[in-house]
């Protein structure tokens, strides 16, 4: 199944790490550590192989992909030997990265993105293209016609009004071009009634939001533990230190607020209440693409005895995120091939703020993900037939 992955933010750290990793795996130069779709429980003939993948994308940044890869290698994010081994393959991907048409009026931007996606699909004779947003976090938008439905949104676009965040404009363009859409960021993306309607009309799946790679991943394991042991979490506070482009973007208050809200959802929905405390995100330029989180949890047990737990998470954001980007693209492509339509709620395993109202427990999300892969292998959808019903 020849599959294109179109990356919004294609020259960023996460996208570059994803591209280098996929090329290295295709060439047999690396192991698929971190790719959950390569675990025995999820390995499936219904998924496109790494050899099936082709990459393209948009970015406002103009630094050549190989230069970005070399910079990440110098920072300890990528092995320098891998970057040095695949210059020709990186040059091929470089030729498929286009300037983001972000300065155009909405209808022209949508048309430009659709044209780029269509040409990319035709040039490589791809069975399908999955659009993945790995660009910087956007502030939460105010209410606009996209909340009222597709007809209201289309009328506003034709009138020349700028009514969509960039992430949602890409989702609109992806669906118009017949492409599934994945939002790895906490931005709005396809989370608007008008875009859900458009996806249903075009018979397309989509997934998101906000990749779960660090502190929230730990929360999704620990919070169910407290709930199942009937321990009362009184406070849960965290401090996140981020460097690199993501950290610089999150220094902006509105983007920071959108990210923090996404990170907090797991606690309220797992515990059934929201403990005191908040998650703070601070920008520390010196740590680059690495991140550190410190969390303090206070809780009470039998007869009100007070206790506490602390943990520290230190990781490389791009190295944690990149294999998940590849997993999501492969799973979404297979779901599209199987006829799935609407939000892929079984992919909640990968997200802080997923579509749907299912459990935030990582173990339960893992079970749902395994169930999805079994459905893809047998060619059945949610209704047990050959094609899924609208989600």
UniProtKB/TrEMBL annotation:
Q: Where is the signal peptide?
A: none
Domain called Myo-inositol-1-phosphate synthase GAPDH-like: residue spans: 214-318
Q: Note the Pfam families from the entry.
A: Inos-1-P_synth, NAD_binding_5
The record, for InterPro entries, names: Myo-inos-1-P_Synthase, Myo-inos-1-P_Synthase_GAPDH, NAD(P)-bd_dom_sf
Where does the source fall among the domains of life? Bacteria
- Family under the similarity heading: Belongs to the myo-inositol 1-phosphate synthase family.
Q: Which PANTHER family match?
A: MYO-INOSITOL-1 PHOSPHATE SYNTHASE
Protein's recorded name: Inositol-3-phosphate synthase
Q: Which organism is it from?
A: Micromonospora sonneratiae
């Amino acid at each position: 199944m020849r599959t294109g992955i179109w990356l919004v933010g294609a020259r960023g750290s996460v996208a570059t790490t994803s591209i280098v990793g996929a090329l290295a795996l295709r060439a047999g130069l690396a192991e698929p550590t971190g790719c959950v779709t390569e675990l025995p429980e999820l390995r499936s003939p219904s998924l496109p192989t790494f050899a099936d993948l082709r990459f393209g994308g948009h970015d406002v940044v103009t630094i050549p992909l190989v230069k970005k890869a070399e910079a990440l290698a110098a920072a300890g994010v990528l092995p320098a030997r891998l970057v040095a081994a695949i210059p020709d393959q990186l040059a091929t991907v470089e030729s498929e990265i286009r300037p983001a048409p972000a300065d155009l009026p909405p209808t022209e931007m949508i048309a430009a993105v659709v044209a780029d996606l269509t040409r990319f699909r035709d040039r490589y004779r791809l069975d399908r293209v999955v659009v993945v947003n790995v660009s910087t976090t956007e502030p939460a938008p105010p209410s606009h016609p996209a909340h009222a439905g597709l007809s209201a949104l289309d009328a506003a676009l034709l009138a020349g009004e700028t009514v969509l965040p960039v992430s949602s404009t890409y989702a609109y363009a992806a669906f118009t071009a017949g492409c599934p859409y994945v939002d790895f960021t906490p931005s709005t993306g396809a989370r608007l009634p008008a875009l859900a309607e458009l996806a249903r009309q075009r018979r397309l799946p989509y997934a998101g939001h906000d990749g779960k790679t660090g502190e929230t991943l730990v929360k999704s394991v620990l919070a169910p533990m407290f709930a199942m042991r009937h321990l009362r979490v009184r406070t849960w506070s965290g401090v996140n230190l981020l460097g690199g482009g993501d950290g610089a973007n999150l220094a902006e208050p509105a983007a920071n607020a959108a990210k923090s809200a996404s990170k907090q959802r797991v606690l309220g929905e797992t515990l059934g209440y929201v403990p005191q405390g908040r998650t703070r995100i601070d920008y520390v330029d010196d740590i680059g693409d690495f991140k550190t989180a410190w969390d303090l949890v206070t809780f009470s047990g039998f007869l009100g005895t007070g206790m506490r737990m602390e943990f520290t998470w230190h990781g490389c954001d791009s190295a944690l995120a990149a294999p998940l980007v590849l997993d999501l693209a492969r799973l979404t492509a297979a779901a599209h091939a199987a006829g799935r339509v609407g939000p892929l709620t079984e992919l909640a395993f990968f997200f802080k703020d997923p579509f749907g109202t299912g459990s935030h427990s990582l173990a339960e999300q893992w079970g749902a993900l395994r169930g999805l892969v079994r459905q893809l292998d047998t060619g059945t959808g949610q209704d047990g037939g050959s094609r899924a019903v609208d989600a």
